[in-house]
Each structure stands twice: as C-alpha cells, then as structure tokens.
Fold these 4 entries.
Entry 1:
Amino acid sequence: MTDFSELPLVFFTTLSQMAVGAFVVLYLLRKNDHIQEMAADRIAVIVVVLMALAMGGASTHLGDPVGGWRALLGLEHSWLSREIFVMSGFLGLAFLYALPQLKSFRSLAGLLGVVFGVVGIVVTAMVYTLPARPAWNSPYPLLFFALTALSAGPLLVSYIVHEQEGTICQAALKLTSFALIAGFIVSVLYASQQSANLAMPAGWLALRCLIGQLLPAALLYKLTQQPAGRNLLMILVLVVLGELLGRQLFYGSVLAYPLFPF
C-alpha cells in the first residue's frame, strides 16, 4: 500500500533544512568577504523562496490552515508549536537579511537568522523524537535533518557562486562531500539498527543512497578546480532528489503499511 499522506512534511523538512544550510554558509562567506554581493543577494532571495515554499506546503498538512496560528499557543509544552515559532522567525530574519534597504542591519539579522535556523533544525527533530515510535525515539531524526542542511545547503551556495562568479567554493563542496558520506553511513546504520521497528524496502533505500549520496559524492570527487556549471547543477539535483526520497522513506517506514508496494 502506497501512502503519501506526509508529502507536505517531506517537502517542508527538506526545503527548510536546505534553506538553513545555505543561509549559514552564506552568512559565513559574506562575513569573511569570500563572496561577491551579486551572488550573495541571489542566494539570500533563494533562501527566502525555499522557506516560503516550505512553510506554505507545511500549512496544507494542517486540518485548518487558516487557524494554524493557534498552534503557537502551545509554546510552553509543544515541540510543534516551538517549531512553527522558530521556523517562522527564521523566515522573517532571512527576509530582512535579503532586503537591500536594510544593509545596516544585515549583520544582526544574519547572526540571528543563523541561530534561529540551527535551533529550528533541533526543534524539528524533537517533534519526531517520540517514545511511541521507537525508530524515531533516538538521535537519528536530528542526524538526518542536520545532514540534509550540511549537504544540500552548501551545494546550493556553491552552484550559485559558480554561476555568478565563475569560481569554486571549495570549503562548501568539501562540507557537502563529508555530509554525503556521513549521510550514507547514518542511513545504513539506521536501517540495520532499527530494522525491527521499520517497514523500509531495501531496494528503495539502496536507490536513495545511490542517487542522493554515493553518486553525488563520486562526482564531487572527480571535479577539477574549474568544473562546468552543469556538473554542479546535476549534483545538486541528485542530492535534492535523494533527500526527498530519503525523507519520504523516513516518514513511510514507521507507518502501519509499507510506503511502497514492493
């Protein structure tokens, strides 16, 4: 039985974590004058768009999207309420950071955005760290979400920098490579250690690891100092597809029925 009922959350978690990873790298590059303004401005806008799409998509998962603001009333006791608050705060700060009219406040907005983004990933992971779901009641949700940010975010920044400046952001690509290999190891450990609590088809897990981790890592390893932009774009597409598939498996693996029919 195929179940895509959690698809809005698949896109929300993947896109929001990608946005956080890109924002953190952008802030560090800009702070240290390692990126030109044109590329930085474009990345900042893309981060806002990704977060807006993520938040908008997540709202469709609510029974009453218009009344979704009421979720904030549970900040004292609900991780979901905290997630909505922190991620909304990150979106607002990223928007302020992207506004050229507020350049004098950019440093403060960037620093606060980094804090809100990182805290947002932790809080989102806590939403799924549930005793009722043994496979999730572990460090794995946090590891998965952090590794999405560390792989897709820096890679997005690298692609935009190459397109705008024609240069290679080696530090960001090395971070992506590390995250891809770490993600592969974590995925295998998760499937093996939590096998009794999962309904995860091995074939789909293998596909996820191949297209979203191993193949992109191999392509990054082969890149010369001046790779073609289309190579980075292809790697970015593979990583994002792999993260989406991995997140779908993450949700589907704990449902009463298998996510895929085979």
Note: Residues 257-262 have pLDDT under 50 and may be disordered.
Entry 2:
Amino acid sequence: MRSKGEETVLERIRPKEDEHNHTWVVATGILSAIEKDGRAKGMVVGSVARDTWLSGDRDLDIFLLFPPQLSREDLEETGLDLARKIARRFTGIFHEKYAEHPYVNATIDGLDVDLVPCYEVASAAAIQSAVDRTPFHTRYISDKIGPLRDDVLLAKQFAKACGVYGSDQMTEGFSGYLCELLVLHYVGFSPLVEAAAGWKPGTCIDLEGHACKAFEEPLRVIDPVDPARNVAAALSCTRMFEFVEYCRGYLENPSSDFFFPHERAGMDREGFASALARRGTSLFAITFATPPLIPDIVVPQLRRSLASIQGLLNRNGFAVLQDDCAMGEERCILVLELLVDRLPPVTRHTGPPLWDRANAEKFAEKYQENPLSGPFIRDGRYKVDLERKFTDAKALLHSPEILTVGLGKHVKQSMEKGWEVHKGEECWDEEFRVFLSHFIEPASPLARRTRTGKKGSGET
C-alpha cells in the first residue's frame, strides 16, 4: 500500500490529460505519414507506448520497421531517407545522428522526436541490429505493467532525484526499461526499495527463469526477450550503490523530498576558489573541442583518454588524487586533482638485481656517465638518480607528450587541433559549474541531500 506522501508525488508526476493528448496527437500524425509513404511500418516505442512516462518528459520514440530481407546498406539509406521526409513534413528543425546506424532527431510541436529505422524481425533472437530489440521490449512491458504503472513512475522519479536515472555513457545509471523490469520483478515500488537496500554485487534478477548467465556487472537483470543480454550492463557499481544508499535513507525517513531534492546550482567562482583553498591540492582542467559524435561514442573515449593522462602524470611522479570528465555541446573537459604539481629536479630510477648479470651490466653501462650519480647498489639492485624531465605538472600537460599516450581516436583528433590547460581557480567554467562543484566537493546523493538541509518530514 502506498504512503500518503507517495500519492502526493504521483499527483505531480503523472502526465496531465492535455500532455497525454498532445503527445498522442503528434504520434498519430507521424504514424499516419509513415503509413501513407508505404515503405515501412511505424511503431511508437519506449515509455510513451507503455504509458510509463513522467509529466514534463518531451521524448517521443517512433521506429520505422523495414522487412528483414533488406540489406543493412539499404536499411540505412532508405531508413534515413524516410526519416528525413517525415521530419520535413512536420518541422524544419531536425538533425541526423549516428549510433549503430543513422537516425533522425526532430523537434515537432515541442516534442523531442527520434525517428529510428530498424528491422521488423519475428523474434528477438533474430535481431540484426541492437535497436531491433526495442519493439519486443515495448510489447513485453505493455502486456504486463498494467496495475504497476504508478509504481514505475515512482521508481523513475526516485532514480532521477537520486541522480542515477539514465543508461547513457555519462550517467551509467538505470534505464527506463530497467526500472520497469525491477518494478515487475519486485511487484511494486516499495518492495523494490526494500530489496534494493540489501543488494550486493552479483545480485541477479531473472523474470522469465532463463537462468543467470556469467555476466560480470554488479547487477544482472536478464532481458526477458533476449536472455543473452544483461539489461543492467550500463549500470556502474558506483551508481548501483548510490541507489542502494538512497533507498536506505528513504526507508529510514520516508519523505516526498526524496523524489524532488533541492537542485544544486553549483558553486560560483568565488565559492569554487574557496573550496580549492580548503583542499590545498592542485587542480588542472584540460579542455578541447567536442568531437562531432554522439555521447555514447565520445564519453568512453574521454574516460580512456583520462586514464591514459593519469598514467602519464603518475609515471612522471605526479600523484593523482581523483579525476573525471564531462562532455559539453561545444567543449569537453578533463579534470585531474593532484597532490602536488611541482617536484624536485631529481628522481630515483631502480634497475635490475645484480644476480641478473646480463641486464645489470647493461644498466650499469648505460648510466655510467650519468651526471647526478653513477649507478649504486641498494638491497641488491642497481639504482641511479636522474634529472627529471618535467618538474611542473602544467608543463607536462601542455607538452606534446600528452598526444603520445592512449587517447581515444576522436579525442586525439580534436586535441591535435589544440587544447587548453587551466590550473586552480582558472578551471572554473560556467558551462561545467555543477560538474566541477560535485567534483571538488564529492558527496553521495544522500549526503548531498542531508547537507542541503532536505531532511525527511517523516510522512507516511
């Protein structure tokens, strides 16, 4: 049974009648245009089709279903041509985007509409591209979710408030489909919260009894329409346990505030500078032009690049306390917090043990004329003091050496055209103020909620 507070939340997050009607008027018009064209069947998918969308959401996903006999090349060419034609029929504002294959994103009567070509296959086992699976998800949830729709709305809003809603590469959280499956499995929002409070790594959920596969992700939710897939594959361990902690907080002190937390606007420049001064560390930000690709392609490359740059700093003696990255519309940012940013000109290099005679002799010969010290022995190994190549972290990050490490392909292409390095207070950026604020003052969603004074009212 739902609490009074949850019923109050539902009144705010259920789509209003005018929202519902407007969305379906737009959807029906688009479906009619697809049918009139005759090259494909149109299908509304996602939360709108399943009636599990939240008030204020403006997303509408419409798939263009083509015969499976069509070649992949023809699907892309014909599908994109049809999507463009439909978009032009309703608006002049649309863009072509690229994931596994191209699709069109359009703004139609205030809605963010994706027109996605796919194959109309007989079963999920016959899919030819990842998006072919989506219609089966829509049918599966639509057939089963009936009495639990409000519970799904609560689960999605709760995850949004926690900051873990979204399976995109940047968020690494809970997709809408995952929320729906969890509500189905636990038969309601409250049972889901109670169960999630006790989740451990390796928790497995299998609605159709397909038997859990040997997935490695911390949460394993077997896709009921495709048993070889983990629906929670995008969920990181961090996001999973932020949700776990948030559930524990809600159970301890239930309140509607957990669904509508105080929005943190981020620090201003002065507050950011004060926070840096309290930490006494050295902060650096690397910025460059955003590659012209979707986040699901760019963000993994940002993370790979960040790890490689951290390795470069560590190899040069600069210990990294924490790092993170973010993708903006025009620029990307990599931030690294160092324990120190300046080092003495000398560094000690350890060579092979003396009992490895051949290599030891090569080491000794190589450094025989070293100006700081000849090779010397400590604990049976050769060692030598060398002149450090970089004594300043900013100089290292400015140097061409940064382009020699394992940067993501498109990140490297962008950085080859130029990058900027900022230090300390100069790292503050209006576009990334929330990201930078969370970085420099890290706190879990529950801890942030407590810090802003949004303590539960204890309503039941």
Note: The CA atoms of residues 190 and 235 lie 21 Å apart.
Entry 3:
Amino acid sequence: MGVFDMLSISASALSAERQRAEITSANLANAETTHTDQGGPFQRKEVIFSATNSSPFRTVMNRLGRFGHAAGGSVQVTQVVNDTTPPVMRYEPGSPDADKSGFVAYPAINPVSEMVDLMGAVRAYQMNASAVSAAKQMIQQSLDILKSS
C-alpha cells in the first residue's frame, strides 16, 4: 500500500467517523424526546460501516501480482438505521404525551452507551487524522530529499 492509498483510506474514514459522531450526538440530544413529527418518541439511530475495495480490475491485477501492493479501499457509511428496541414506558399521567393509562413512551437511549460510542468515534477520528499527518510528513521529507539530491 502506498502513501496515497493510505491518505485515501484515512480521508474516507475521517468522513465516516464524523458522520458517526453526528448521529451519536443526535441520539444524545434526543434522549428525552417523547414526541416527533412522525408521532411517538425519537428512535435511536445506528451507523453501519462497510469497507470497500478498489475496482474489480485492480483487485484481479493485484492477485496476478501486477501492481505489487494491495488495492486501496475506503470506509463508507452504508446506511443509518433505526434501532428496533421498544421505547421505555414511564408513568407520567399529567404529561400531554401520556396514553390512556398515563404512560409516556421515551426513546430507548442509554446515555452511557452513547457517550462510549461518541468517544470511540472521536478516538478513531483522531487516529485517522494522525495517519494523514504522518503521511503528509513522509511526503514532505521525500520532497526534501529529492531537492537536496
């Protein structure tokens, strides 16, 4: 894998982790939202990642040993899905969102789990930013060596 392949993979991962952090932040912000435009409580969202390889041509050529290194790829958010966990029911008979029995449906969001997920997204983002910085430094040092030759 070359330096530019690494830059491409890290750039795609930065974008994916940013989206993961945004979705997790939205989950946290809506942890107490009992009524949405669609009706009912907010539904927690989850981000699904996938790794993509480069073109099929490049993959075949790599298997044949024509390029001499692994194909570059990327990280993508393939979809954002609603969590299917049922809402948490709390007895609050005075609430305007209460049902006939006096229960209000709250989102099934655990703030501790969301914070752990957010910290994971931030750490992954930081690691990819460090990889981009290291690649940039290697390119600059290579150019400096070529200039002095």
Note: The chain has one domain: 3-31+45-82+111-148.
Entry 4:
Amino acid sequence: MPSTIERQFVETRSGRISYLQTAKTGPVALFVHGVIVNSHLWRHQLAALAGLRRCIAIDLMGHGDTIIDPQQPVSFEAQADMLREFIGALGIDQIDLVANDSGTGVAQIFAARYPECLRTLTLTNGDVQDNWPPVNFAGFLDMVKAGGLPQTLQRMLDDKSFFRGPDAMEGAYENSATVGDDTIEAYIRPHLASPERTNDLVRFILAFDNAQTVRIEQKLRELNVPTLVVWGTGDIFFGKEWSDFLATTLAGPVSQVEMPNARLLFPEERADELNSALRAFWTRGA
C-alpha cells in the first residue's frame, strides 16, 4: 500500500472505527466495502484519486480493524447510522459516497436517511431492494448459520487456493487466480484476530434482511442527488436488472456505466475503469 495512505481510527458511539485515508484536507470521497472484505478493497481508488479527493475507505462494523462492543447492532441500518457518526466525528459535512456489495445496500439507507450529507452517490454491484442475500450466497449463509464460519475463515488463510476456489470467493472475481496472498491475508486475518471479532462477522451476516432496503424505496424516489451506477454485467450475484432498477428509481440525475463481464469485486480487478468513471463523474459534477 502506498505510504501516502494512512491507517487511522476514530471513536464513535458505535465503536472505534478504522479507516484508510489519503489526505486531511479537501472534498471527501467515502468508500464503503461489502461482506468478508474491508477497506483494502479500495486501495487502487485511494492511490489513483488522491489528487481529486480526500479519499477515505472505512472498515464497516464486523470487518477489518474496526472494534465494536459485542452488543453493538451491525445491521445495514446500524451501519448507515455509524457512517453518519463517523463523518460527524471527523467534522465532515458532505461526501461523495462510493459503495460495493453489502456496502451498496448500506449506502442506499444512508442516502435515504441523510441526503443532506451527500454531494454525489456512486453505487456498484451489490444489494438492492429485495435481491439480497443473493440466491448464490445461500450455501455460504447456511454454513454461517450452522456455526462453520471460524473453520471456513481459517481454511481461507491456511489454503489460499480455497479462498480463490468455487467453494469460497471464486464467483466474486473474473479471475480469482490473480488474487494475491497479501490481499487474502488483508481481508481474512482481521476476522480471526479474536473470537469476538469472528462473532461480529457472524452477527453481520445473520442480520441480513432485505426489508431494510425495501422500505426506503419511496425515499430513494425522492433523492435528488447526482448518482453514478457502475455495474459489472458478469456478476453471478447481482444482475444488470438491478442497475436498471436503481436508474429508474432514484430521482437523480442518474448516469449508468456498464463494465462488460466484470464481476462483484471489480473495484480491485478493474480499478482503472472504475477510477476513470469516478474521475469523469466527479469532474462533471464539479
């Protein structure tokens, strides 16, 4: 990771929130990841876009180096409220919000609850309306419910080919074979730092409930925030129809960009394309 990207922590009511940032001044872009991964997902965006924004990538509750109380709620709604606490603690008034996977669901709830905090909104492949947890995630969810997550995470660390394989994260990538060991370590090791940290992730996954995004539809229809929807068309979890749903639901204005054949975690696999889309969107908005 470039030396210009720093790991920082801030105390909020929800917990001690971990984040990466590129600078301490300028308009802020806040990047929100999804399940299993963490702020490391956005390393290429932080490195490439630092000249345009003060880029901040947060670790959601139950992920990365964020520390929370065992009783702290970790639902999407609780995560959205934490984001508001987070930017408030840093003295930030408005953000360009960018999200992926579960973070896309969290970002929509944040937008519905705190529209005054948004300068722009960028949503990529992720949880929308009632299409989550996705059907292809059902096996993983069953494993978590059965108590198998600690062993599965440990296997991902001990056997990196398992992480890259069909029984784990292969479906999230166009070419999972290219995922480096260092990236797997960055994503998985924090979940095994303690039994409490592992259980935070368990609680996050078991709190999945698409009623949280269904009930904000009307507020999304009233959300007059410039929005960019960037969607990988090869995603086995979240099809292009959900990009179209966002484009026709959000009041906008909304721009759509398609990435042919890209899968869920394209922010790291096809970072240059996403960076170009963000750069053009933010410049146009400015």
Note: The beta strands are 6-12, 15-21, 28-32, 54-58, 95-101, 118-126, 227-232, 254-259.
